[in-house]
Each structure stands twice: as structure tokens, then as C-alpha cells.
Write a structure and sequence with these properties.
By secondary structure, this protein is an alpha/beta fold. The protein contains 23 helices and 14 strands.
Length: about 600
């Protein structure tokens, strides 16, 4: 990168002029649009060594760079700011070298450490909802960005398929289902199971109200209600491997998995391996025993096992109940061990909502105290809740927004918006259906991913499909416009352009510099685990391209070298937009 070359020359200049070793302190900034230059070096930290005023120091450094740095076209000094302008030839050579590269911006494959990304983590008692959508999009994008950054990346999904909440759906179906199946009801499997989870909740609330009328307290009623007692009995039977109970459990879970798979396909989510809590919930017991032997855990009189984390700023944490049954942390300790055995990834990223921040602090602390190889690499990628404006997209359950409802609504909104623009007349219904899905999902994914994961956010479906501003459809439209230009241009010239015959305008140079930054943005997004950095970059790229398109003729340019350069710029711009959006899990349409 040119920034690294500039930094090397600055280090040499400071050492030569002022006997200063600045190899660890050099930073560059983008030059303000008010001044000429591409990069700015701030000299104030080095005034003590130079013993001169800011202007004199910056000028001395600039003069030395002008003699030693061949890529430097000119410099100017504004107080203590040294603005450096790179020769146009450098940016043109960059374009010539990269416009054909399909993997431009990507680091050398498998050049960095192996990383495991766990995301989705649904329950098998209801459909995926809006919160799961953010989780899936975030996990998928982070995995893609890490891979583009050179990491070996594996993904997994820990499915919560056991417990009292699962038994609630089972009990309701066994009581009132009358053999209903997804096929007989024409209801998607996860929605059908969710329907019975809601039915259980309604019945449970009615029973509680009746018991309260009889004189029981609300707390007593919640424990005595017949439906909850029946669900608890089912859980006991499940843990005892009762044949009939296991049969119902497997049947209903299969319905849910079929439904999940349809939604995952629409979202573009992918997993290298699924883990199931029904397989992993007992795994941690051996680790608990290991911890007792090492003195990491202690046992109370009732037989329960605990860890004291008060010196770490937390509290005492239960890791095994007195009756020997596991708690969530038990299971997660075992699953962490299993994941390491399966994938050998010392770095393990958990994409889970911010309500679990305490849990993952405890998990990592315990793994560290046990001396686990992978403990240091445990990382909780925490994200905030997604909310909708009042009255938007009612859910089937009335409390959360169903993922399938959301996707359907996005496609309908995309269709309405596109038809209103009137630019796709004459296209087949099949092509339009694909386009509406592409635009709808692009709007949804971009809107959810552009926000810092840690922030709670408001998702406005109509705002997300605006064809102007910082939205997925605006960037998709920019891509489609570029592809239209390239189709009209025909076959791109195989010969390079003559750099001596080209006048590079400010916006042309700005666009080339923005394209040049793509590898750096991928690297930074991978380091920060932030798809939002990539979203903001590709939006800025689309804005600069739009200005370039507005200011300069492309197909009607008379100078053949200038025309070729602009067409090559279009080719690289479309390639970077497509590449960046693919990392975010977003498709781009060739026409729009």
C-alpha cells in the first residue's frame, strides 16, 4: 500500500533530519478536501526533536521526501500539516494492474489463523424472528470478511433443541393437534410448531388466572398449573429416553428443521456443522470433575458445584446442580471443548445477543482458569436488539416479527418501489420475481449490517428500500448502472491506455483512491469484526462513482486512452461493489 511506502520514507526522513526513531508512531490522515493532497502528515509530535516551528519542520521533511520519494508529485504545508500529493501515474498503474482481478482486495487465502464463527443458535419451538435475522446476517458476513482477510474460517450452529420450552410445544400438539402436520395444514413446519407453542402459552395463562381466582398466589399458580406440570413430566420422560416422547420430539424437530432450512436459504446463511443441545448438554460434566480436581471449582454441602469469581469482579457461579444435572455453562464448557477437537480453532467467535455478555465473560474466565488452549480466543460478538416502528409488519405471535413475514414484506415493498419507478417494463415475471427478492433482501441486509452490532437499532422497512441515500438499493442501482455502461461499450479493449495521454481529474483520482482502499477496508473490517465498516466503504464508493458518472462522459469520450481508462475504472468499480456486497451476503442485479 502507498501509505506504507510513505510511512517508510517519513521514518527515514525523521531519522536523518532529527535522529528520531518514529517507526512505531507515524500516522497518516486523508487530506482535507479544502487543500490539495492525498495524505497528510501531522508534524506537531516531532517539534521537540526538530527544535523548529511547525511550518519549518513540515517544509524540511517535505523537501527531503521530494528528493527521495519518486511517487510524490508535490507537497504543501499548512501550519503543522504536511499535505502530500501522489503522482497520477501511480493511481493509473494501480488501475491497469487490478481492473481484471476477480479477487482484488482479498488477502492471501489461509495466510492467517483459523477462526470458528458460531451463529444463529435458534430454539426448535418457534420460527426464526427479526433478532435471529440480525444474528444470521452478522455471523455470515463476519465469516466472509474474515475469510477475505486471509483467515481459515469455519462456521457452526448450536441448536437449542431440548428443555422445557420444547416440551411446551410438544404437549400442546399432543393435546390439541389431532395429528396435524405441515402437509395436512399447508403450514411451514417451524410455524406449525410455533403455533402450538403459542397455544400452550394461552392455555397456561388461562389456568394461572383460574387458580388465582381460587385463592392461590400468582407464583403458586404458575407452579401448579396443569399444563406446566404436564410439560415438566414430558421433560422427565425425554431425559429418561421414553420411546413415545422421543418419537414426538424427533417428528416435531424435523418439521422445524425443514422450515429453518427454507429461511436459511432465503437469508443465505451457511454452516459447516450443526451442534445440538440434546447431544451436548451433558458434555461439560467431565470438565467440571477436572476443575474440581484442579481446585478451580468447589462443592457445597448440597452437592452443587460452583466457581468463585469475586476476585475477577464477578460473583460465585453455579456450574453443576446438586442433583448432578447440568446448567447452561456446563453445556457450553463441553461444547467449547468439542468444537476445539473438531476444528482446532484457537479463536472462537460467538455471535449472541448482548443479554448474554455476563455468561460469556464467565465462560472465558473458567476456560482460562482450567488452562484450556482455546480460552484466550473465546470472543463474544455481542449485538443489540432490533426494533420496528409501531404498526409495521404484524407477527403471527403478536410479540415478535417472524423472519419469513419480514422477508415477504421486504419483497412486496421492493416490488412496489420498483414498479413505481417504471424502469423494468418488458421484463418477464420470473425475472422480476428474482429482482424483487434481490432488492428486498439487499435492503434488509444492508440496513441491518451498516449499524455497529453493539448498538440497539430501529429497522424501518420502507426507509431501507429508498433508492437514494445510504441504502442497499442505492448501491445495487449504482452497480446496475455501471453494468449497463459496460454492456453498451461492448468488449473492453485488451490494450492498456497510454498514461501520458490522460488528464486525471480530481473526481477520477478520488475514485481510484477509493478503489485502492478496498484491501485496507477488508483488513480493518476483519480485525474489528465489523461489517459496518465495509457497508460504509461501499456506500462512499458508490457516491464517488455517481459523481464521476455525472461529471465525465464515458462512452462519448473522444480521447481513446481517456475512454479506456474510464471504462477500466467502471470495470473495477463494479467488481469491488459486487465483491463487497458478496461478503455482506448481498446479491447485485445486472439490470435495475
Amino acid at each position: 500500500m502507498i501509505q506504507d511506502i510513505i510511512k517508510t520514507h517519513l521514518v527515514d526522513a525523521l531519522r536523518h533530519l532529527y535522529k528520531v526513531d518514529a517507526s512505531q508512531t507515524i500516522t497518516l490522515e486523508k487530506t482535507s478536501s479544502d487543500y490539495e493532497g492525498d495524505f497528510t502528515f501531522v508534524v506537531f509530535p516531532y517539534l521537540k526533536a526538530s527544535r523548529k516551528n511547525p511550518e519549518q519542520t513540515a517544509t524540511e521533511i517535505g523537501n527531503l521526501l521530494k528528493d527521495s520519494f519518486i511517487q510524490l508529485q508535490s507537497y504543501n504545508v499548512v501550519k503543522g500539516f504536511l499535505n502530500l500529493q501522489i503522482r497520477p501515474d501511480y493511481w493509473l498503474q494501480f488501475l491497469s494492474d487490478n481492473y481484471k482481478k476477480s479477487n482484488f482486495g482479498f488477502a492471501e487465502p489461509n495466510s492467517k489463523q483459523a477462526v470458528l464463527v458460531e451463529y444463529s443458535s435458534p430454539n426448535t419451538n418457534k420460527p426464526l424472528h427479526l433478532g435471529h435475522v440480525r444474528n444470521n446476517l452478522l455471523g455470515f458476513a463476519v465469516a466472509n470478511i474474515l475469510q477475505a482477510g486471509g483467515h481459515i474460517v469455519k462456521t457452526c450452529n448450536l441448536v437449542n433443541d431440548r428443555g422445557i420450552h420444547i416440551c411446551k410445544s410438544m404437549y400442546a400438539w399432543m393435546q390439541w393437534g389431532k395429528g396435524e402436520t405441515p402437509d395436512t395444514s399447508n403450514i411451514k413446519g417451524d410455524h406449525l410448531v410455533g403455533k402450538y407453542y403459542v397455544a400452550f402459552d394461552k392455555q397456561y395463562k388461562r389456568e394461572i388466572e383460574a387458580l388465582v381466582v381460587e385463592g392461590f398466589t400468582k407464583e403458586e399458580a404458575e407452579k401448579r398449573a396443569p399444563s406446566i406440570l404436564a410439560a415438566q413430566e414430558l421433560l422427565v420422560k425425554w431425559e429418561a429416553h421414553d420411546e413415545e416422547t422421543i418419537k414426538v420430539w424427533k417428528t416435531m424437530n424435523d418439521w422445524v428443521y425443514a422450515g429453518f432450512n427454507e429461511t436459511y436459504k432465503k437469508l443465505g446463511a451457511h454452516f459447516d456443522k450443526f451442534y445440538y443441545e440434546s447431544d451436548t448438554y451433558l458434555l461439560g460434566k467431565e470438565i467440571i470433575q477436572e476443575g474440581l480436581e484442579k481446585g478451580v471449582f468447589f462443592k457445597k454441602d448440597n452437592g452443587s458445584v460452583w466457581i468463585d469469581l469475586t476476585e475477577d469482579g464477578l460473583d460465585q457461579k453455579l456450574v453443576l446442580r446438586g442433583d448432578g444435572t447440568s446448567v447452561y455453562i456446563t453445556q457450553d464448557l463441553g461444547t467449547a471443548e468439542l468444537k476445539y477437537k473438531d476444528f482446532k480453532c484457537k479463536r472462537s467467535i460467538y455471535v449472541v445477543g448482548n443479554e448474554q455478555e455476563y455468561h460469556f465473560k464467565v465462560l472465558q474466565l473458567i476456560a482460562l482458569k482450567l488452562g484450556k488452549t482455546y480460552a484466550q480466543g473465546i470472543y463474544h460478538l455481542s449485538y443489540g436488539m432490533v426494533e420496528l416502528p409501531h404498526g409495521k409488519m404484524k407477527s403471527r405471535e403478536g410479540t415478535v416479527v417472524d423472519a419469513d413475514d419480514l422477508i415477504e414484506e421486504m419483497e412486496l415493498t421492493a416490488a412496489e418501489t420498483t414498479r413505481a419507478l417504471g424502469k423494468m417494463e418488458g421484463e418477464s415475471e420470473d425475472d422480476l420475481k428474482v429482482l424483487y427478492h434481490t432488492i428486498g433482501m439487499g435492503a434488509l441486509k444492508y440496513y441491518l449490517l451498516k449499524v455497529d452490532p453493539k448498538k440497539k437499532m430501529m429497522f424501518n422497512p420502507e426507509e431501507s428500500i429508498d433508492f437514494h441515500g445510504n441504502t442497499g438499493p442505492f448501491i445495487q442501482y449504482t452497480y446496475a448502472r455501471i453494468r449497463s455502461i459496460l454492456r453498451n461499450a461492448g468488449q473492453l479493449s485488451t490494450s492498456d491506455f497510454n498514461k501520458q495521454h490522460i488528464e486525471l481529474s480530481k473526481v477520477e483520482k478520488d475514485l481510484l483512491i477509493k478503489l485502492y482502499q478496498y484491501p485496507q477496508v477488508i483488513n480493518e473490517a476483519a480485525k474489528e469484526l465489523s461489517p459496518g465498516l465495509l457497508c460504509n466503504y461501499v456506500y462512499e464508493l458508490a457516491k464517488v462513482y455517481s459523481q464521476f458518472y455525472h461529471d465525465h462522459p464515458i462512452l462519448k469520450e473522444a480521447n481513446p486512452d481517456q475512454k479506456n481508462m474510464r471504462l477500466f475504472t467502471c470495470e473495477l468499480s463494479s467488481g469491488v461493489i459486487k465483491s463487497a456486497f458478496a461478503l455482506l451476503g448481498i446479491n447485485v442485479p445486472e439490470k435495475m
